[in-house]
Design a protein that fits this description.
By secondary structure, the protein is of the alpha/beta class. About 20% of the residues lie in helices and about 25% in strands. It has a single domain, classed as Purple Acid Phosphatase, chain A, domain 2 (4-Layer Sandwich), CATH 3.60.21.10. α4 links the parallel β9 and β10. The longest helix has 11 residues.
Length: about 200
């Protein structure tokens, strides 16, 4: 299965310079947040496949949800047998609808305990913010959540997708591996060949 992961800025390759066929072969689009509704609607329309998304810390500027897209915030979503869990938002550094303290994010995670158990785990973790000490920055606005490390250790998903930390902020790799888990910083876009 081919997944297009997007986050934070609209990709000129897929938007401004779009040509027919660029999205051929994409089976699923996953947005890690902070993208305009119009862009997500464009992608889901042109690709003709489902688009799942979580909210980013700046998504409170959107006055509506993107049409034709599926919000997986606080859900374990089944896509063709692949268990995908979504936890959007970032570390709280100011007032904002999609900003959380560590304890607030832990509470959100605890509410997902039963859906995770019911599905015998997760295959893909989708967040906006990174995990603590895994592609994050020590400044409060770009700090990762410690509880994401707990999810990764306990459930060992095959894939962890996040955004929020723009790769031009420093020398952040787009792809890395952490304890056997493929970690993708979806800033702008990344195509992943996923095998369940």
């Amino acid at each position: 299965m081919r997944i297009l992961a997007v986050s934070d800025i609209e990709s000129k390759y897929y938007y401004d310079f779009y040509s027919p066929g660029k999205l051929d072969g994409i089976d699923l689009i996953i947005s890690c947040g902070d993208l305009d509704c119009e862009y997500l609607e464009f992608l889901v329309t042109m690709a003709g496949c489902p688009l799942l998304y979580v909210h980013g810390n700046h998504d409170d500027r959107n006055l509506r949800d993107p049409e034709g897209c599926i919000c997986i915030d606080d859900l374990v979503y089944d896509f063709k047998g692949i268990r995908i869990m979504g936890l959007g938002g970032s570390f709280r550094y100011r007032d904002g609808k999609y900003m959380y303290t560590e304890s607030q994010m832990k509470r959100r995670l605890r509410r997902l305990w039963y859906p995770i158990k019911k599905r015998n785990g997760i295959d893909i973790l989708v967040t906006h913010a990174p995990a603590r000490h895994l592609n994050d920055i020590d400044t409060l606005p770009h700090r990762g959540f410690e509880c994401f490390n707990t999810i990764l250790e306990k459930y060992q998903p095959k894939l962890f997708l996040h955004g929020h930390v723009h790769r031009n902020y420093g020398n952040f790799p787009q792809r890395t591996t952490h304890n056997g888990i493929t970690v993708i910083n979806a800033f702008e876009h990344c195509v992943i060949d996923y095998v369940n």
